[in-house]
Write a structure and sequence with these properties.
The protein is an alpha/beta fold. It contains 10 helices and 8 strands. The chain has a 6-stranded mixed β-sheet with strand order 1-2-3-4-6-8, with helices on both faces. A two-stranded parallel ribbon has the order 5-7. It is globular, with a radius of gyration of 19 Å.
Length: 262
Amino acid sequence: MHNPAPATVITETRGPVAIITINRPEVRNAVDGRTADGLREAFEEFESAPDLRVAVLTGAEGTFCAGADLKAISTGAGNRIEADMSLPGPMGPTRMTLSKPTIAAVEGHAVAGGLELAMFCDLRVAARDAVFGVYCRRWGVPLIDGGTVRLSRMLGHSHALDLILSGRGVSGDEARMMGLANRLCEPGEALATAIELAESLAGFPQMCMNADRRSSYEQWDLNFAEALANETAGGLEVVRSGETREGASRFADGAGRHGTFD
């Protein structure tokens, strides 16, 4: 009997948290065409599931993602590159605009397209010895999954150009200083730390948190006055929903004293 090929993307849920794992450890979780499709489908399912509030993206067996699978590209099984921005990005989900938070749990290498997948996420939890880098610099493979855009916007132009031009690897405190890593943890603990963070985000009033998140992204396309107006419009929707009044009532009843998040 023919055994089906193992899934290259595995999705599991832990309460309101979706855990999406790139499952190609034999090639350091490099992404081929099939895996790119699987990643896009996994994030589409997360986006459409009302009971899922936060997604965590990680890689199997100690590596986040080594980028696009160049060997697969050489055999015709590689990632598709489409100029039409309505179509999926080469690494799968990188052109999507999600309405809910995502966290990358990074062990080992997040390089080339793997770095672009990590930057696609809102936050990155990284082991202290995890390495971020534009390693594709040496092979003439361009950043076409948002790398030049997200790095420049999220890290600042100087840090972004350091990575983009040099192709060097960055880890530890330097990665956190740049903004590549939002949280550092001990090796082997990135996924558990990311899930803990995801569960904390899932516990907040969701309409308010996601409205603030949306405004933070949408402001890039607006001038200052328009951005303020957009922020206010989103905030008014939250207030009118009753979520703010409910939170104020909990505070008045004694919750959150001394800055606790219980």
